Amino acid sequence: MIEAKHISKRFLLKRAVEGIDLELIPGKMYGIIGENGSGKSTLLKLLAGLLRPSTGSLKINGSPLTRKSATDIAYMTDRGRFYPYLTVKQLVDFYDSQFHDFKKEKAFRILEYLAIDPDEKLKYLSKGNLGRAKLAVTIARESPFILLDEPLSGLDPMVRESIVKGIIQFVDFERQSLIITTHEIRDIEPLLDEVFILHGGKIIDHQTVDDIRTRERLDVESWLKRKMQGNESMS
Fold first, then answer.
1. Rounded to an integer, what distance in angstroms lies between the CA atom of residue 214 and that of residue 146?
2. Do 192 and 31 meet the contact criterion of CB atoms below 8 Å apart?
3. What is the CB neighbour count within 10 angstroms for residue 188?
4. What's the domain range around 166?
């Protein structure tokens, strides 16, 4: 379990996230949604152990969550081209050398499923194919927590569909948790169990997708819009 108790993160005088409380358990799919600048990427980096909270407690399985927690957490950044001089196959070899839970054969199965040439250099891949390659090496790990930061951002509908299908095909929903930040809510909604709305660095609501559909009678995107409009009217 990942447990955050009143965590905050500041960069000099800027507040990125503040007062975050949440519990994440294996076997569930969580969405972190909100407008640009709401703190989604910062929160995901905190949960990945790449940043340390300025205040509050952040633990995984009862121990402090740090960079060493990468053995239990697979993280996919939203940032651009990494290791551009490598081929896709060399990227797979690199991940295999770094993570004990990485499954090389599984990575190549995912790449084949997503139609990515292992011999292509990363710097020559289109944005969509680079996104597929990054996803392949991330979900080829068998860590209990998989964190994906805007995996569908800026991609055309066909690429987004292939990535969602890849997640469905290769993530073990029985024992792994997916935590995803996204603006492409309609594409990812079928995967989600629970959703957090982040606004101004704070969680302003947290619901299960079933409750949103049955009690609110809304899809997740419409629920987000209603919550944001209500929040703006109160501010």
1. 28
2. yes
3. 25
4. 2-234
Token pair listed for 96: 């295999």
How many domains in the chain? 1
Tens digit of pLDDT for each residue in 55-75?
999 999 999 998 888 888 999
Question: How confident is the model over 94-104, as a mean pLDDT?
Answer: 94
pLDDT of 42 higher than 70? yes
Please tell me the distance from the alpha carbon of residue 132 to that of residue 74, in angstroms, as a whole number: 15
- In angstroms, rounded to a whole number, what is the distance separating the alpha carbons of residues 114 and 158? 11
Cβ contacts of residue 82 below 8 Å, gap of 6+? Answer: 122, 134
pLDDT at 170: 94
Helices (H), 115-179: 127-139, 157-170
**Token match 């987000």: residue?**
224
Between 82 and 179, the higher pLDDT residue: 179
CA dist., res. 68 & res. 170, Å (int): 25
Q: Is the pLDDT of residue 79 over 80?
A: no
Angle, helices 127-139/157-170, rounded to nearest 10 degrees: 10
Yes or no: say if 144 and 171 are a contact pair by the CB < 8 Å rule: no
What's the pLDDT at 115?
Answer: 92
Cα–Cα dist 232/216, whole Å? 19
pLDDT tens digit string along 160-182? 888 898 899 999 988 999 999 99
CA distance 45 to 40: 9
Token digits of residue 140? 């080829």
Sole residue written with tokens 């358990």: 25
Residue 164: which CATH number? 3.40.50.300
